[in-house]
Design goal:
It is a single chain. 29% of the residues lie in helices and 19% in strands. It is α+β, with helices and mostly antiparallel strands. A hairpin with a 6-residue loop joins strand 2 and strand 3. The protein is globular, with a radius of gyration of 17 Å.
Amino acid sequence: MNQWMHNCHSKKKVRGLGRRYRTFSKYIDEQIVSLPIRNNIDPNYKGYISLCIPFSMFFTDSKNVSINVKRFFVQKIINKIQYLLDIRTETHNEYRIFCSFNSSDLDDSGILILFTKKGMDSFYEGFFSTEIKEAPFIRLHHTQNLEEKWGINIPKELNVKGYKPIDTDYEYEDQHEIWFIGRLD
């Protein structure tokens, strides 16, 4: 395991990294064992389940955190999305399962399970809503750059969508790119 930091200006060893990896892996595995069953069977129901995954609970969030730590965090979440998609049955066929993370601040990462296509449409409507006339995000079309830049493996069955905030004012000042990976259609 490479515990040396290559993206900062020091060669300081990160202490307890293996323990943090194991703790995070155990947390993810305990939180997501199976797919949830939606409580409401109404066809107009737009419900969802989400799991917020706090990066800072397991790793110190600073600019000195190595890309290896961030890569492990994101790859573990992507692997869990693939696992959930693999265990789907006919009753879960309509579920939209994906993760979201911000490339600059992994503390806002999460796994979302939307129960219907209408729920996905509602999610995008809320994501793009704004008081101004133009959309606050532009779509990124260089999704293969995510795999190269981060060094992560995204299975071919998963969709990848990236967005970048246009307005870097108060609400989006620290966000560089927002990525959605999973079943998005």
